Every structure is written in structure tokens, then in C-alpha cells.
Amino acid sequence: MATSSQSCGVCDLRLITKPCIVWCTECDEGLCKECYEHHSLSKASRNHIVIPFTDYQKLPTDVLKIIQYCSKHNKKFEMFCQKHERPCCSKCIVKTHKECRDIVDLDDVIKNYETPNALSEIEKTLVELAENLQKIRQHQQDNMSSLKEKTKEIEKEIKKTRMEISNYLDKLQEDFMKQLYVLEEKETSRIGQLLSLFEKKEKEVEECQKNIINIKQHATNLQMFLSVKQIEEDVSSKDKFLQSLFEGDDLNQHFLEYEINGAFQKIMFDIKSFGEVHIEEKPADIVLSRKKAKEAQIIVPIVQSRSIESIKMKINKKINLQGKWIYGCCMLPDGRLVFTYNRERKVRVFNNQGSKEFEMNIPCGAFDIVYISNDNTLVVTSGESDKQCLTIIDLERNEIKKTISLSSDNYGIVLKDNQLIYSAFNKGIRMINLYDEALSDIVREEMASEGYIATFKDNIYHTHRLNHTVTCYNFQGEIQWIFKNEDVLKNPLGIDVDSDGNVYVAGIHWNNVVVISNDGQMYRELLARSPGFRYPITLRYYEHKKQLLMANIHDEARLFDLI
């Protein structure tokens, strides 16, 4: 590793300290005036590249830290492995790269490498990066400002709602108190009339008592006899009146009772908050500069991707799927195979020998399926269904773990960086986060039903069975290429991509499987039109095993080895 010592490296070994005037990039040390003179004349070092030490000191720290020799074997780099894009010493080639074929001379690579042009392009890319970072920073600052503005709007709306509720309750209270006062006045008036009647009767009784006293003192026997009869009739009349009051309901005691409207109590139990506030996520509307894509990378000899012409398929096994209308398939890490049965609304799992292990009913419907290794689950799309949702199956318990409701019919699905990407009928290509179920749009356009999805690096691939197209998008929703050739691929459905970016597509009309090159320009039929395997619908490619799994609309699946 380069050091920043200002003394001559050769003199240091002789325990002499002299300032260096040049730096030899190949010896990786500084040289004083005398040592430099010998260095420039020596046969072993006369062709070494040296630079003034003052220029060497101006190099960035990261450049000074670059190792210019093999740290493992302490030998000089001599060759360059194109496969691994790595410089090698003579021992590296023997021990580590003996299987590699693309080994070239390091000096030739350096000689052919256009350093000034590359640095110029890197500078342009850095300018673009700075512009894009500024755009992103401004976008996020605007986002922060909009959050503050929205917070003020929500606070204002809450206060307004609170005031409206308060005014409404005041009106209810006012109306209720009027009703209460009317009832009280009515009952008070009724009782007042009874009291007036009782007061009148009491006076009549008192008058009768006085008359009896006067009769006793002053009346003759005849007068007394006649008066008693009259008084008895009067007393009897009053007694009957009193008895009639007891027998009737005029003397019933009246009470005011209050029963609160149950809706108010329900409010206190049911309403736990003033509302719900959440973050809605939408794709950033930033247009980034992409004038020189990937020009900042070091230009070295590139290993060519696997040509579609060299791809061959060899049958590994056939599986009797014990049912029809199979629209989705996937392979589990242990080699088990999983299939969806659209019309039966079922998912079936088969073991390595092709025997059915278990099956499960999917209430929402079953179209495509994808495996999630993080929690050992399967996610099933519902396709065209009365219940538009994703069904998540727990493979540990062989039961439905949860469902996620969606707003559209959903078909092909893939997993990308813990996000589910699916084809939404008449909506486009959508992405849903598994953690918070936040939904975002990648492609906003009307999609046909039964569209399938695949991803590779920064691209998304989608089939459109009505337009007979395979479209490659980037994650900003921009079209990279479109493949359309109805003579070879008609009504495309299932799709997947290998590690070289080659695209495999099932064509149901021509009963074939087509592979398309990573740039969308070339194609080849892998599985030719044959009555032996009719109506292929779904397929999946598995890189670790170099295998292609496919199933047809009837009751058969086939597993192929790609060689």
C-alpha cells in the first residue's frame, strides 16, 4: 500500500534519511536525487513510471490507498481476469483463476483503456449526480413543507369539526330543556288544579262541622231531625268524591325521569379518536437526468451474456396435477412444487416425487403465486374474483395467515426487495409493501386481465395477452422495449427472466415457449409448437438449479433442466 513518507525508501533501508523528489508508481516508494538517477539507469527499472513527489502528494487519499500489488501473495499484478474483473499476480492465476479462460495481460488492458475519456465521462456523470441530488433534496424539502401545511389544514379542520359538534350539542340541549320545562309546567298545572279542588272541599267540610255545632245548641228536635238527614247526604257525597279519587288515577304521584340517548354513550365507547391520520405514499414525481447511464463504470473487457442460441432444454420430470385451469406455479427451496387451480379456487403442493402433499381452499380465488423465504409463506393473487385480495399462506402451519384487500382484480405477481409487484386489471402495475401494506403505482395504464409479471435488476417485464406483447419497463414506469411478433408469440401469458436477462414467455395460442434476448431484439422457440404439451400458461425460472418449471391449462406440469 502506498505511504506518505517524504523520505527516500532506498535510503531508509540504509538508515539514511534523505528527502524524496520523485515517486515510482511501480516500486511504490519515493526516491531521492541520487537513487532516482540509479533507478532511471538500471535495466530492471529504467522503464518504470515516476512522478514528481509534489504531484504525488496532491493525489486524493483514496487513490493513495489503492493496492498496486497482490496483498495475498506479495507479488506484482501482471494479468487481468475478465470474468471476475480483477487484476491477478502469477500465483493468483494458478491458485484462484485456473478455471478462468478470459485472462489477458494487464498492460494491454491499461493501454487500451481510454483514461482521459473515461474520467471526462465520470465528471459528466458526477455533474448529473449533483443535479439529481439537488432535485431530490429540493423534492424532499418541498415534501416537508407540504407536510407542515397539511398539518395546519388538518388542525383547522379538527377545530371546525369540534365547533360544529359543540354547536349541535348546544342546540340539542336547548331543545331538550324546552321539552323538560313544558312537561314540568303541565304536571304543575294539573297538581295545582287538584289542590284548588281539595281546598274547596276542605272549606265545605269545615262549614258542615260548624253547622252541626249550631244545630246541637240551637235547633229544635224537629229541625235537628231534618238537618241530620240533609247533612248525612252531603257527607256521603263528599266521601264518595274522595273514594272516587282513590279508585281513579288522579292521585297517582308523577315523577320526571331522564334516560340519556344511547347514541351518546355509544359515542364514548365507539369513538376512540378524532379520526385517522396516516402517511399516503406516492411515487416521486422527479425526472432524473439519465444522459450517460452507467458511464461512470470502469470500462473493461466484458464477459458476454449467455446467448439465447446456446440455451437448450432437457426434460427432468412430468407431474400429473390432478386438475385443470392451472394459472400459477412456483418451486419451494426444498424442491416441492406449488400450483394454483383457478376455477377450483385451490392451491396444491406436490413433493419431489410428484405426489400431492396437501391442498388448501382459497376463498378469494387463486391465480398466480409467489414464495417469500423471509417468513416461509406463499402469496396468492385472486385473479377475476368477487373478493379482490391477496391471500398469504403460512407453510409452517398449512393455513391462511391473512388476506390483504385490493381495489382491483389482480393477476401475475413477483417479489422484489420485500415488495410485492402485481398486474392490476385496468390500473397498471402496482407495488405493495409487505410491512405496512402501503400501495404505489409503477406503471399507470389500463392492463388486460391475466397479465403476468417478472423482474430482473432494474427492469419489470409484463405480458399483454390481447395486444400480443411483452413489454420491458424500468422502475420509473418508462418503456425500455416492446416485443411483438404474432407469428411466433401470440396471447403471451407466463413470464420469467434468467440471470443473463433472457426472457422466457409462454404462448398459449401457438402452444410454445419463446426466449427473448435481454435487449428485446432477438428471439427463439425453446419449446416448439407441439400437441404433446398444449396450452402452456404459467412458468418460473430457478437460477440456483438452472431449471424452468411450467404448467399448462390442463393437468400437466413439466420441469426442464436448461443446459
TrEMBL record:
GO MF, one example: zinc ion binding
Classification via InterPro entries: 6-blade_b-propeller_TolB-like, TRIM45/56/19-like, WD40/YVTN_repeat-like_dom_sf, Znf_B-box
One Gene Ontology cellular component annotation held by this UniProt entry: nucleoplasm
Signal sequence annotation: none
Annotated keywords: Coiled coil, Metal-binding, Zinc, Zinc-finger
Coiled coil: 119-218
Domain B box-type: 3-53
Superkingdom to which the source organism belongs: Eukaryota
This protein's record includes keyword Acetylation: no
Protein name as annotated: B box-type domain-containing protein
Organism of origin: Mytilus coruscus (Sea mussel)
